[in-house]
Structure formats: C-alpha cells, structure tokens
Amino acid sequence: MTTTESSSVAATRGEARRQATADSVYKPKDGLLLEVDDLFVEFHTDDGVAKAINGVSFDLYQGETLAILGESGSGKSVTAQAVMGILDMPPARITGGQVRYCGQDLLTMPDEQRRKTRGPEISMVFQDALSSLNPVFPVGWQIAEMFRQHRGMNKSDAFERAIKLMQRVQIPAAKERVKAYPHQFSGGMRQRIMIAMAIALDPAVLIADEPTTALDVTVQAQIMGLLQELQEERQMGLILITHDLGVVADVADKIAVMYAGRIVERADVYDLYRQPAHPYTKGLLESIPRLDLKGQNLAAIGGLPPNLMRIPPGCAFNPRCRYAQPLCTQDRPELREVLPSREAACHFSEEVLNG
Amino acid sequence: MGKYIVRRLLQMIPVILGATFLIYAMVFALPGDPTAGKCGERPCPPAYVAKFREEHNLNDPLLVQYGKYLGKLAQGDLGTSFYGIPVKEELAKRYVTTGKLALMAVAWETLIGIFAGVLAGIRKGKFIDNLVLVSTLLVISIPVFVIGATLQMFLGVRMGLFPVTVSSQATFYELLLPSFVLASASVAYIARLTRANMVENLRADYVRTAIAKGLTRRRAVGLHTLRNSLIPVVTYIGVDIGALLGGAIVTERIFNIQGVGGFLFRSIGARDGVAVVGTVTALVVVYLFANLLVDLLYGVLDPRISHD
Ligand SMILES: Nc1ncnc2c1ncn2[C@@H]1O[C@H](COP(=O)(O)OP(=O)(O)OP(=O)(O)O)[C@@H](O)[C@H]1O
Ligand code: SF4
Ligand SMILES: [Mg+2]
C-alpha cells in the first residue's frame, strides 16, 4: 500500500468517525463509553442452572484497553456476549444488572434499537476466524455487508470500502483478494478480515474475545499490534479477553481478573504484574513461562475451577487457595479497595500483597 | 473445471457399457418365450417364430447379440421393440411426459419441503416443529401406492378437484396431483433434511457473527443460515431428479400416465429385451448426467469444493 493510499484511508476514517459521532444518538459523557453494572447471567439446562456470571461490574473509557483475564469457564465470553447482546436466550438468562452504553441501558432497549448498536457502536472479534466467517460468501462481500445493512450503501461503494478496510488491516493484494473466500486465507489473514469487518463502521467499543488464541506466536504479536494501532488511531474503547496474561501485558491499560463469574481483582497492568493482590492472580502470574526461569517447574494453580452449578459457599476460590482460612468458607469477600486504585475480592489481600 | 468435466464424461463410458451388458444378460436369462401370446390363443406357427428369432438375433450367443446391439447403439439406434416400434421414438414421446412429471415433483419438493423445513428449524421444539416432524414421518412410512390411491380417491373421485387419470397430452393440471404424490416422500425427506441443517447451522459461529454484525434476524437466518443449510438439500434434489426421471412406475400406474416407467414395466412383462435394454440405457445416461450436474452444482454452492 502506498503512503497516499494509507493517509487517504486514515483521512476518510477520521471523517467517518466525526460523522458517526455527530449523527449518533450516543454521546459519551467524560469519555465514559460502557458501564457494566452488577451483571448476572445464568444458563438453564437439563442438568440444572449454571451461574455463569455473578455480579460483574466494570467501566470502559474512550481510548482505554481493558483486559479480561481468567481460566476457561470463568465467564469471559459470556460477559462479552451479554454486552454485545448475542447470548443464546434460552439457555441463557440475564437475571440482574445493567449494561449501559453512553448512559443508556442496552438490556432494556427495544430489540431493533439494540441491533443498530451492533457494528456502528459496539463490535466484536471472535477467537476462531475460520468458523466465524461464513464459508460460502467472499470476504469482501462479508465486510461490505456492514455498509449495506447499516448505511444502505450500494454494492460497488460498499465493495470499495471493503477493499480500503482490507488494505488498512494490511492484507496484501486486497483488490485482487476481495472476492476470495475465507478458506483461501491463512489464519492470521482471516483474523485481519474479522478485524476489518469489526471496525468497518468505526465503533466506539471493540471487544476482542481471545483474538489470537488460534494463531502462531509470531502472528499473535502482529495481530495484537494491529489491534493496538487501530485502537489508538480511532480512540476506541477496547476489551481484550484472554486467558494468557503474557499476550495482553504490553497492550492493556487495566486488567480485570475473573473467577467463577466474578471479578476478583482489578488493577492497572503494571501494578498487577508487580504485585498481585489476589491469590488467584498470583497463581496465574506464577504459571506464566518465564525465560529467566527456564527449566524450572511452573507453579500452576492446583485443582479445577468450580462447577458453576455448585459454586462453593464463601469465597469460590477457597478449595484451591493456599491462603484460605476458615472465614473463607463462610463469608464471600466483596471487591474492595486494597490499595489506592486497586481492588481485590479477598479477605486476606494484605497478606498476599506482602508476600 | 473443463478438464474435470471431460474426465467425468470419459468415466461414463465404462459405466454405460457395464450397465447395458448387465441388463442385456439379465433379459437374456429371463425365462419365457417372447413370441408367446403374439398369435392369439394358439402358439405361433414355427415359421413365424423362426423369422422373429432371426430378426431379433435371438439365435446368436449372448456376447454376439450384445455386440450387434452395441454396434447399433453407437450409431444412436436403440433398436426396435418386439412390437415393431423404434425404441427411440417411443422413449422420446414418453420422456416428455415423464420429464414434466419429474419437474413438477421437484417443484413440490423445493417449495413445500424447504418451506416446512425452515419453519420447523427456526421454531425448534415448538408446535410447528413437532407438526412437521410427525407428519413427515407419517408420509415417509406410508407406501406411495397408498398415498396415491387415497388422494386419487378423495381429491379426484369424491371431491372432483383433480382429474383421476392423465391423458396422453399430460397437461399441467392433470399432472398436479400425480406429481404431488410422486414427490410426497421426497418432500418429507427434504423437510427433515432442511430442518436438521437449519438447526445445526443456527448454532454455527458465523451466524453468531452475523448477529454481532447487527444484521437483522431475517438476514442472519434467511441468508447466512439458509444459504449454508441448502447445500446438502440442493444436492439431494439433484440426485432425486435423476431418480424421478427414471420413471415413477407406481405413480404412473395409479394415474395411468404414459411415461417411461410404465413403458419399462410393460416391456419387462412382454420379455421385450430390446425395449428393456434401450430404456435402461437411456435411464443410466440420464442418471449419470444428473449426477454430473449435481457435482458441478455442489462446487458452485460450496466454494470449499474444488473441481480442479
Ligand atoms: N451455551 C451455553 N449453554 C450452557 N452453558 C453455557 C453456555 N455458554 C456458556 N456456558 C457456561 O458459562 C460458563 C462460562 O463460559 P464462558 O464461555 O464465558 O467461559 P470463558 O471464560 O470464555 O472460557 P474460555 O477461555 O474457555 O473461552 C461455562 O463454563 C458454561 O458453564
Ligand atoms: S478470600 Fe480466602 S479463599 Fe478466597 S482468595 Fe482470599 S484467601 Fe483465598
Ligand atoms: Mg471464551
């Protein structure tokens, strides 16, 4: 791509965003885009009720990157899907809380109004780009569909925009490949196409659910780099979901650590790395492979995440916690400020912080 | 693509040879005398029998007979039936009727089968879904003969809504009921196939993406889900066209339709070897072409399939 092309792309996008915000009925107040407030989600299945999300709250500001971290099954994707409004209901049921976008509650919004927020306001990138793209439509067509559905653009204009977006996410020979099908691209290129589709309408919030888990390590770094670049260029609020702390360390501003459907620790990336305040976070950090400790055994967290149909009383982490005391099986610790601008949900955070 | 088609066409030659030989051998092995009943109540005079056997090469050994037949076939001659009618002419006439019947049956399959399947699929577990599942099971388990005779009785004879038999013109109106009867089992099968595919694809990741893109539900289901769900359905319909063109012996008999199936049935009964082999050869060829068409269509519908 030539420089003139890239700057013209950047110019049109700045223009588009200004246009979008001018037209949009959604205006962030003091940069606050998204407020998830005491969210509860259950899954009602034949086996019983799985309490997947149990009171999750977080805020997201313009230009901010929030990483959500947690083991498999901790509720990261369900949180994201609840925010997007793409949960399968049934079996899912939102039993409490609010998801406010620019002050308006998405959960009580009429369906049609909510639909129109998906894409132009809030957008999402999924883990497996191969299965997440429709196998029978050309990639350019799938990107162009955003403009056709939301902007009522004609086919050829929409395709033009699709090519520009493919160029923006650095797909080589975008013009020639706009009519190619998903299976004709490599994993990394497919994820770029997913990203192009997600940013097509200049959303204010982008949610990326493990966007690099299915990719090689080198490609992972490139995709993370691209996401960061786009986020800075467009001042999006970015939610990065991952179970791998190493992947988001350089990119994220804030981290929320999830366990059994609750946020157990919330902090700036640097603080959290330096000094975790929750035993679970500490365990996660210790299980990251480190080059300087090559050859030593990883201190992985023993035990399994709880069955969401029978979450242990008290602190859900207590069966696996090496700091656990009798109190932990009786009283559920709430998220509290343990240091200035640091929150953790543990009765004994002070001990954890001190060593 | 071009290469693929040529290869497929070449592959047809041994299949056609093998199929015709098998049929030829079977007809040859059939017991009974082809001249029986040709001369009224009495057996035919020996002179007539000798002439008849000579004319139709019946005295030659099997391989020689078959060789002579192939020689004619190569020139596009399907031979003359024992009744003195050129098989090609007879087939051409009857194929118009059978073709009309088959196409109308396919129209039923497509319209009702897909519609019912989609409806059931998007309302899984609801009343309409159960209705479709039970009624299709019923249709599949009742023999087509019973369905045909019943509908003929009620809609044709009792209520007089449809003609009871089909004239040699085989008009659209006359074929409405027979084609529906012919299609009934396939309609049921297609409804179930469509439903199963819809249910499965509605859970697919790309449908979730479609919703996340802010597409209307109509577009996410009616375009993204349906387009993928129809791939196996269209394939099934393609194969079914081949089968339907093979003649619908039962349906044709119920409604007295002058089609290919009836001709084949009658020829077998009359020990008319030439007519049987000619008809079957034509069927095999039609079937092979229908199959080729399906495979090509499959490549068009599913970009992941490549014919290079
Ligand atoms: N469709 C569903 N039906 C039933 N239960 C579900 C469904 N989706 C999620 N759950 C429940 O919600 C829990 C949290 O799932 P979620 O997908 O949010 O985990 P995650 O943190 O994203 O994990 P991963 O790292 O594996 O993606 C699961 O353990 C499961 O019990
Ligand atoms: S509350 Fe108790 S069990 Fe839970 S993390 Fe803290 S110390 Fe461990
Ligand atoms: Mg997940």
Automatic annotation (TrEMBL), chain A:
It is a peripheral membrane protein. It is found in: Cell membrane. Residues 1-10 have a biased composition (Polar residues). The keyword ATP-binding applies. SMART domains: AAA (SM00382). Transmembrane segments: none annotated. The keyword Nucleotide-binding applies. InterPro entries: AAA+_ATPase (IPR003593), ABC_Ni/Peptide_Import (IPR050388), ABC_transporter-like_ATP-bd (IPR003439), ABC_transporter-like_CS (IPR017871), Oligopep_ABC_C (IPR013563), P-loop_NTPase (IPR027417). Residues 1-22 are annotated as: Disordered. Residues 34-285 form the ABC transporter domain. GO terms for cellular component: plasma membrane. One of its GO terms (molecular function) is ATP binding. Belongs to the ABC transporter superfamily. This is Oligopeptide transport system ATP-binding protein. It comes from Pedococcus cremeus.
UniProtKB/TrEMBL annotation, chain B:
GO terms for biological process: transmembrane transport. The keyword Ion transport does not apply. Residues 95-298 form the ABC transmembrane type-1 domain. It is found in: Cell membrane. SUPFAM superfamilies: MetI-like. Pfam families: BPD_transp_1, BPD_transp_1_N. GO terms for cellular component: plasma membrane. The chain crosses the membrane at residues 12-30, 101-122, 131-155, 175-193, 274-294. PANTHER family: DIPEPTIDE TRANSPORT SYSTEM PERMEASE PROTEIN DPPB-RELATED, DIPEPTIDE-TRANSPORT INTEGRAL MEMBRANE PROTEIN ABC TRANSPORTER DPPB-RELATED. Belongs to the binding-protein-dependent transport system permease family. This is Oligopeptide transport system permease protein. It comes from Pedococcus cremeus.
